[in-house]
Prior knowledge:
Blueprint: H1 22-33, H2 37-44, H3 48-64, H4 72-81
Helix pairs in contact: 1-2, 1-3, 2-3
Amino acid sequence: MSVPDSPPDSxxxxxxxxxxxxxxxxxxxxxxxxxxKVVAATDLGISLGTINTHLIRIRAKYAAVGRPVTDKTGLLxxxxxxxxxxxxxx
Length: 90
């Protein structure tokens, strides 16, 4: 799946986007649409631990490119900025 270029930031530079795997993108999108991690895990047929592991890796990848996030709201903002999700999907 192709991800569109990020919109430029206020300095005219594009923010760096982490290289998320297709599975990480799938889990991120479903979790952002779900009420809880438990619901996302159930919908995907995986354990809560697996959801947590993927989210830890996603956060680490954002931190590695200088765009750290610590919570669901932060990940939602990054996903919107990077065109990984749209408001109409949520």
